Amino acid sequence: MTNGGKTTLTNNLLKALPNCCVIHQDDFFKPAAWAPLFQPQDQIAVGEDGFKQWDVLESLDMEAMLSTVQAWVSSPRKFARAHGVSVRLDASDTHILILEGFLLYSYKPLLDLYSRRYFLTVPYEECKWRRSTRSYAVPDPPGLFDGHVWPMYQKYKREMEANGVEVVYLDGMKPREELFHQVLEDIQNSLLNRS
Ligand SMILES: Nc1ncnc2c1ncn2[C@@H]1O[C@H](COP(=O)(O)OP(=O)(O)O)[C@@H](O)[C@H]1O
Ligand SMILES: O=C(O)c1ccc[n+]([C@@H]2O[C@H](COP(=O)([O-])O)[C@@H](O)[C@H]2O)c1
């Protein structure tokens, strides 16, 4: 979920895991107008509620994200080099790709590609408070959290659960270090079980 601590956890994992790349879903938001002059470029719909609908799958270029994932799948080593990730020649040939995002489990073509699916959650009040301290490329207009962000979070999570998508829930209220060690251990175990 938004402000669950995804970026923080991802950055910690990137430092600890060899040959590890990341793709951020936020990099795939479709363009939006910032001024009326640019209206034809605007691909973010405005809902009946008057809010720009940022927190829906249609606002993200998921095909482009999938292509980026496929580029990694076809050559992790080349992908790592192109993204400035140093490839350790002495390490095992295992490569890891982290996808970091708030709507990763609602886009079917990606669903079967994941080895592990983690889902960080925090309670409503904490999420709202953390969000109020963030500055996004496009600042939240007043009322966006309650009017759009939170309802969309609930809707997609309900759908994900109804579709039987299995995830490992992580308590985003735990200290950063604890979350990091929990997930690192889980990744290491899942790698061991594969070999
Ligand atoms: N485990 C945690 N406990 C308390 N605050 C956290 C934790 N993880 C992240 N934060 C804080 O919450 C905010 C959102 O974190 P971030 O990692 O950017 O979330 P996300 O990428 O899920 O939106 C930041 O201010 C960050 O410092
Ligand atoms: O990054 C952007 O350009 C951007 C522009 C408008 C909105 N966002 C918000 O970014 C949120 C997802 O990012 P995050 O880090 O909170 O998971 C999502 O809730 C959107 O409302 C992000």
Automatic annotation (TrEMBL):
Gene3D superfamilies: P-loop containing nucleotide triphosphate hydrolases
UniProt KW keywords: ATP-binding, Kinase, Magnesium, Metal-binding, Nucleotide-binding, Pyridine nucleotide biosynthesis, Transferase
Keyword DNA repair attributed: no
UniProt keyword Magnesium, yes or no: yes
Functional pathway: Cofactor biosynthesis; NAD(+) biosynthesis
Any coiled-coil regions, as ranges: none
Enzymatic reactions: beta-D-ribosylnicotinate + ATP = nicotinate beta-D-ribonucleotide + ADP + H(+); beta-nicotinamide D-riboside + ATP = beta-nicotinamide D-ribonucleotide + ADP + H(+)
One BP annotation, GO: NAD+ metabolic process
GO cellular component terms, semicolon-separated: cytosol
Family recorded in the similarity comment: Belongs to the uridine kinase family. NRK subfamily.
UniProt name for this protein: Nicotinamide riboside kinase 2
Species the sequence originates in: Muntiacus muntjak (Barking deer)
